[in-house]
Amino acid sequence: MTPEQIKEFQQAIGTASWKLNLDRFAAAIGHNSEYDYTREKFLQFQQAAKALAQFDADTLAKIITAAE
Q: Is the per-residue pLDDT at 1 higher than 90?
């Protein structure tokens, strides 16, 4: 992946994390928002978005390239 593609991905994840509440997230993944599983996945998604935002795109590109 290029740094530009990674940046687009980071922005898309960040936007989704910012815009989706639990009910919209549940609808997107096809689950009921009252399920513990759905709540756990929602929290994990929010945590993943926050963690991903801690990296710049160039660093992530280098990490991905190193794993190839």
A: no
